[in-house]
Design a protein that fits this description.
This protein has eight helices and eight strands, in the order H-H-E-E-E-E-E-E-H-E-E-H-H-H-H-H. Helix content is about 50%, strand content about 25%. Strands 1-8-3-6 form a four-stranded antiparallel beta sheet. A four-stranded antiparallel beta sheet has the order 2-7-4-5. The protein is of the alpha+beta class.
Length: about 190
Amino acid sequence: MFSVFKKYIESKAVLSDDEWAFIESVSNVKKFRKHQLVLKEGDVWNFHAFICDGCVRRYSVDADNVEHTIQFSIENWWAGDRESLLNETPSKLNIEAIENTTVLLIHKDDFDKICEKIPTFSSIISSILQKSMNTTQKRIQADISYTAEEKYLHFLEFYPQLANRVPRHMLASYLGVTPETLSRIRKLAYKK
């Protein structure tokens, strides 16, 4: 599965064989079964995680035991808890494999060494983080200003590859609506 990660990076830049050998030497590929936790709330997240195959969701659980899905990540996307990673504090989030999933994990210290030794890799990561911040900003804007139907249509427009992979209750959680409301929204959207 390292080849999936390599292909992803090679689509953005060229690295030498020695650089690839170093990256591979500090990478760990791990498989997670459907419904298995990649990260449990309260644990400290120490990795940069690249999804090679499968799908995960990042979510929190409130005091009333209601789940709030924050993000889905599929093949060629990154996943994790940046707050826990950067601050070395217990995570307030869970990350769950919602399909059988293969993840390439690079420990924070090793990732920092890669960025230090391979400036091209560091530039790629910087660009990815900027795009991620833009996506987060768009998500926040949609959450505070869109109707439930607009949020759903926005999701379909920007993440069509997720529409049939994500269970309905998780999508409802992501959109901030109940599964029943999501069913009504879908019916309305299909009639249009």
